[in-house]
Amino acid sequence: MTTSTHFHSLSARRLLLLGGIGLIVAGMVFGDIFAVFILHQNAARVGEGLSSAAHAALAGDGSRIPAIFQNIGSFLENRGTKVDTHVHIIDFGYLALLLALLQPWIDFSEKTKRRWAWVFLLGGGLLPVCVFLIHYVGLAHSPLAAIGWASIFADLGGLLALLATLAFLVGLARHFSSSRSKAVRDDLLTERSFTGHLLLTGGLLLVLIGFVHGAYYAGFDLYRHEALDFTTLREMTFAATQGQSAAVEGSLAAYGQLQGEKAVKIAAHAHIIEFGLLAILLALFQSYVYLSERWKRRWAWLLLIGAFLLPACVLLELNYGLVAGGLADIGGLLVIVALLALWIGILRYTGHLDAMEREAE
User: Fold this and answer.
1) Confidence bin at 1 (pLDDT 50/70/90)
2) What angle do CA 254, 257, 262 make, to 5 degrees?
3) Mapping DSSP to helix (H, G, I), strand (E, B) and coil, where does residue 181 land?
4) What is the C-alpha radius of gyration for the chain, rounded to an integer number of angstroms?
């Protein structure tokens, strides 16, 4: 096992690495819970609301429509805040891993770097929690007319994360602009294990597949979906004004199918690239995972299998429904379990390293 001069007790790299993986795990657990218990139910309520509004228009009952769309707006806000929470907490985890990687080149004292690492993790945790609360807190007791307390504290969390990131970038610039800067030797850059190569190769392949899928979607589906979005709603409105009930039902079904197709393709594109980047970042930190090489390989394979399974099954949800959705959730669970195992391995490394430092005193 290698030891690192950049990974001693309570170092900024250690805090950012453990905190970053912790944020990603928390975000994925939240995402799985959201997908199982909220996402599909929420989409069904939005569809029911659109159907109710169309039928109210057919019946000439315009007085009901504003209340119906107000409920739809509430459902969309509920979904939007949950999606934002899931995305932000995982993205802050990725950024924490990137900042952990850069720590040897940050030209600050270790004490200063450690303080900024705490500021970043505080902001990275505060923002998604407060975004989650926006739907429930609303404007209650807020000093501002249009912004509630949850939004205020979410902005504060974002500001803390931004300031910490800028501080680290200033430290990075100081290192490379200083005439006294010395060459930095970092043991992570010499990682040559099979597990590191496996995660790096798998991550690059995931990113490549994600880019190819994104290019295909942009070239063959994106503009078609945008055109269908407009024309389907226009046809639905026209049919409602003409009292054509069957045409309204057909437009509602087509619109729901279109939104589902867009959602699964965008989600698959985003997830496969995110998992690829995660695998690449974790490949660089394998020397800090205090597990046997055999177990590290097993957890790496589990992570890559889950990373391929989840987006592939998301794409199949339109054709195979809950079966594909359940398999996608299992893929997410595999990634979560693998991440927890790697996090525990890194925690074991820190304990072993601290024990070695105490024995040397």
Assistant:
1) very low
2) 125
3) coil
4) 24
